[in-house]
Amino acid sequence: MLAALVLLSLTLFLRGNETMSPLKCKAFSRATIDVQNGPLVFSIVENLQLYNKRKEGMIHYNGYVKSPDANTYLERTIYLSNGVKTDKNTFTYKITRIVSAPLDTTSDDTFDQMWLENTSDNTTITLNIKNIREGIFTVSSPYSLQYTCVKY
């Protein structure tokens, strides 16, 4: 009886470590990227949502871009699927599609300047998601630290 109880407890403990709750976190970031025409200043809210044991999700960008030529509104959603855990905190996703909101006035070329900080193409993205404190995560790519977000 005691052995069965210990075995059941151990099974539940190990299975509990394998399950992942959905992750929803937001961050505000301001990034300046120097390009040939002058600096691009991205002031955006980044909303990361991962579901289904972090195998699918989305990244939503919402904010403004200031360039030497214009100030534009940015609102894009990147849909992720086929997430594969590559190590303790790292996942690689297939990018299903990138959708611009109807009010988005930022050119694809300008958006790509920021997007290249995340991935080298529009087919896959690798994200390292590290829990640094209760409800606080750093999100980074192989190219750079992206942001620190707060779970909601």
Automatic annotation (TrEMBL):
Pfam family, one: FidL_like
Superkingdom of origin: Bacteria
Official protein name in the record: FidL-like membrane protein
